Amino acid sequence: MAETTNKLKGHVVILPYPVQGHLNPMVQFAKRLVSKGVKVTIATTTYTASSISTPSVSVEPISDGYDFIPIAIPGFSVDAYAESFQLNGSETLTRVIEKFESTDSPIDCLVYDSFLPWGLEVARSNSISAASFFTNNLTVCSVLRKFSNGAFPLPADPDSAPYLIRGLPALSYDELPSFMGRHWLSHGGHGRILLNQFPNHENADWLFVNGFQGLETQDCDIGESEAMKATLIGPMIPSAYLDDRIKDDKDYGANLLKPISEECMEWLGTKPAKSVAFVSFGSFGILFEKQLAEIAIALQESGLSFLWVIKEAHIEKLPKGFVESTRDRALLVSWCNQLEVLAHESIGCFLTHCGWNSTLEGLSLGVPMVGVPQWSDQMCDAKFVEEVWRVGYRAKEEEGGDGVVKSGEVVRCLKGVMEGETSVEIRESSKKWKDLAVKAMSEGGSSDWSIDEFVESLGKKHWGN
């Protein structure tokens, strides 16, 4: 267990964007800070406040103007929500900061989600330091910054590829964040929230990215790296799966969805080592209907045992006879503790949408991956899985096709990570990256050192050292 001291090293407020994929790394960061002697308060929306069950941190509800409504409801407007959260959140967050002013633990720093750039204004108006926390990888952040400042014209043009940023892997048009290219018109609100992370980001005292040294950056033959200058503090996953220095830290401690744990563990316990494909497409579960059918056919044809996290509404849309024909080798659940499943010895591979959190989890636990990215940053993450880290494959759609990855391609990738010579190489590479992830978060590791540096900066301000 990490040592904590009685002497408080500062007080940090953490402001996450209230969706599962943002809550997880930011709540985990809160626990890391607490383990190093920092008092942490999480300021989150009224709707999400009750989902955080981490005894070591306190939670203060603030208003986004949608207090008792989940933000993923049908007809939800990203733009209207952003405006409402800024208006209501700025005022209620300021009250939280003011509440601690006259106590023995006033707020020293606000760590705000980069999706909420108004956090910087709140911090400055209350004379505290500010850190912006990015939940995408460094490459995606660096590319989005180029689009935001006009260095790359919008919308992205296939003829302008490859997109080059010195010090990072080149990206094809199809590997860019999709809201800059093929989803630019259909998801304009999502694109705007990504671009709005950057106009004031360099004014923050710290920029945190959930990654670690050597994960993405490459040596430059000529000139200085153009990657966004940020402090790498990841992977932000529970300590039990990395350095094990935080006692009983096996779960993020923020669950908007209720996981089905016992049934999953019992079922996995009946399967041989490295024999099961774990299938999950994230907390939003976005999988277009045609793609859903192709995934189902691939799982049917693969002959593999599989645990599939799939919503009830999606089960009804599966091909006729699928559930019956795979019943003896499949378990379908609405949600689960993903880390607990990935860490189980029966898991042989992870069929994933390649959201950044899921990708980091697979990498940190040494599980080979097959990526079927759908949108946003997922295509870039899948590129790293196959081409940079060599820990799996990206299942690719047919050239000139309808954007759907066919079942045969998914089967090819599943066989590649589970069978034959290629699977041996992928497992060796997976082991290598798992060890590097653990090293980064262990005492004296690159990310651990960076977090210590941040904590030390709080101490100097708080104690006037």
UniProtKB/TrEMBL annotation:
Tell me the domain of life.
Answer: Eukaryota
The answer on whether this UniProt entry bears the keyword Membrane reads no
* InterPro entries referenced in this protein's UniProt entry, alphabetically: Glyco_transf_N, UDP_glucos_trans, UDP_glycos_trans_CS
Q: Which family does it belong to?
A: Belongs to the UDP-glycosyltransferase family.
Pfam families assigned: Glyco_transf_N, UDPGT
Q: Which UniProt keywords apply?
A: Glycosyltransferase, Transferase
Protein's name in the database? Glycosyltransferase
Q: What is its EC number?
A: 2.4.1.-
Q: Which residues form the Glycosyltransferase N-terminal domain?
A: 12-47
Q: Which GO terms describe its molecular function?
A: quercetin 3-O-glucosyltransferase activity; quercetin 7-O-glucosyltransferase activity
> Its GO biological process terms?
glucosinolate biosynthetic process
